[in-house]
Every structure is written in structure tokens, then in C-alpha cells.
Fold this sequence. Notes:
- By secondary structure, the protein is an alpha+beta fold.
- It contains four helices and three strands, in the order αααβαββ.
- A three-stranded mixed beta sheet has the order 1-2-3.
- Strand 1 (about 45-50), helix 4 and strand 2 (about 85-95) form a beta-alpha-beta unit.
- The protein is globular and about 50 Å long.
Amino acid sequence: xxxxxxxxxxxxxxxxxxxxxxxxxxxxxxxxxxxxxxxxxxxxxxxxxxxxxxxxxxxxxxxxxxxxxxxxxxxxxxxxxxxxxxxxxxxxxxxxxxxxxxxxxxxxxxxxxxxxxxxxx
Length: 121
């Protein structure tokens, strides 16, 4: 997870250093907040969450799609999980990921991770 986090930060910094004119043009024409978001990703500390400890399970019953352990989380669940911060999520249910992902010692989860960056497209 650290390798992925560091690489994403490196890419954001590289874009700033090597493509600043393009980013300025994008900020003017497409998205005024794009440069701030890149800076934010480049300087942030990523919170690490396991699938089981995700905030989507914390009693919020307002989801359009019901939340239960083992569900393949969609965007509305991930938005609740990340709560505006940058996150690495790991240890997903083995049924949710491909067969070739290493199964953890608990027999229920796998060694897989996703990097969740809200508001970064």
C-alpha cells in the first residue's frame, strides 16, 4: 500500500513540475479546483482502512443499496468510507475479488487493496 500511495504522490508532484502550463489551462477552462486537489493528494497522509472497518458499516441506513458484510461496495458506500480523506482500503471479502488473489489466514478475506481518492477523477 505504501508503494501505491508513494507512486500516486510522486505522479501528482511530477505533473505539477512538468505540466504546470497544461494544469493552469485546465484550471481555467475545465476545473478551477484541479490544481488544489493535486497539491492535496501530493501532500496528504493516506488513512488505511480494512473492508471490515469501513465507515459504511457504522449504522448509516440511508443508503440506496443496503450495506452488509460481503457486498461489493459501490460509489455511495465508498464516499461514506472515505469521508473526504484519501484512503487505502484492503482485506476485501474473497468472494468480491478474483480467484488469483492471495487468501488471508482468516480464510474469509484476501490481500487486495484499492486506493480511494474522493473528488479525483
